[in-house]
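Please fill in the sequence for the structure shown.

STRUCTURE ENCODING:
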């Protein structure tokens, strides 16, 4: 099956490599990608800027390009294979670690009192009166039993 690649992950793999960025206004920037954020904002170094008409050139040591001004990016072909390799590595690491496969159950407790918060106790008087007797959560039955009551058996 084909795996989809997110554009930002593709661009992040290009960090430290030469890229060509064309903006919506027609200007192009050739430089080395320093970094990229989630909004595709780029930092480039050793940049050559070309005007829209391709008649003027500027050398710029460092430039910031806002992501929503980018028309397209041209990255090296070998970056695609690098992204595929990284995706396969991360997938195999997830399978080895056993994480990401649901929450699991842990140890099953049999005694109701051991279950922790909100489960009540086995005491005849209803246990912790500050929780309104048995249950600890829920509505109860309006007689001071169950629910998050006040523990004073007023039944409101």
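FILLED IN BY: designer on duty
SEQUENCE:
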């Amino acid at each position: 099956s084909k795996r989809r690649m997110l554009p930002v992950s593709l661009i992040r793999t290009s960090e430290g490599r030469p890229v060509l960025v064309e903006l919506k206004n027609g200007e192009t920037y050739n430089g080395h990608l320093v970094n990229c954020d989630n909004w595709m904002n780029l930092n480039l170094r050793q940049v050559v800027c070309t005007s829209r008409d391709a008649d003027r050139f500027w050398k710029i040591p460092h430039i910031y390009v806002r992501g929503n001004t980018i028309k397209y990016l041209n990255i090296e072909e070998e970056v695609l294979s690098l992204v595929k390799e990284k995706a396969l590595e991360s997938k195999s690491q997830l399978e080895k670690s056993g994480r990401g496969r649901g929450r699991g159950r842990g140890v099953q407790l049999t005694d109701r009192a051991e279950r922790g918060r909100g489960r009540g106790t086995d005491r005849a008087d209803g246990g912790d009166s500050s929780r309104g007797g048995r249950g600890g959560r829920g509505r109860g039955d309006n007689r001071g039993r169950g629910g998050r009551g006040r523990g004073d058996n007023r039944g409101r």
